[in-house]
Design brief:
The chain is mostly beta strands. The protein has one domain. Helix content is about 10%, strand content about 30%. It has one helix at about 90-100; strands at about 15, 20-25, 40, 55-65, 65-75, 80-85. The N and C termini lie far apart (about 45 Å). Bound molecules: zinc ion (2 copies).
């Protein structure tokens, strides 16, 4: 059975400011799946309330149970954030980050 094609979820496409990949938003996208960088735009996930706008660099990937978590640091304000990786993310890149952080 093919699911409904009617989505009401807010979809946001964006160009990654780090690797210039065109990212297709799915309503949950909060980082670039190609390089795992993101932009500091949320105070709480998805709220886009943060004024900083700095680029958030992935510094570490950790495994927590079944999930992989990428830890990012904002290059502008140095805040640390943790984001769960999703299946669309490039795990080769994640593995590389993990290797470098060891
Ligand atoms: Zn990117
Ligand atoms: Zn910031």
């Amino acid at each position: 059975m093919i699911g409904s094609k009617k989505f009401t979820r807010k979809v946001e496409d964006f160009i990654c400011e780090h690797c210039k990949a065109e990212v297709k938003g799915n309503g949950y996208t909060n980082h670039c799946p190609k390089c795992l960088w993101s932009k500091h735009v949320d105070m709480n996930p998805g709220d886009r309330a943060e004024q900083c706008g700095g680029l958030m660099k992935p510094i570490k990937v950790v495994k927590e149970g079944k999930d992989y978590i990428v830890e990012q640091v904002c290059e502008k304000c140095k805040i640390h954030r943790r984001k769960r990786l999703v299946k669309e993310d490039d795990f080769g890149v994640a593995a590389e980050i993990q290797r470098k952080s060891l």
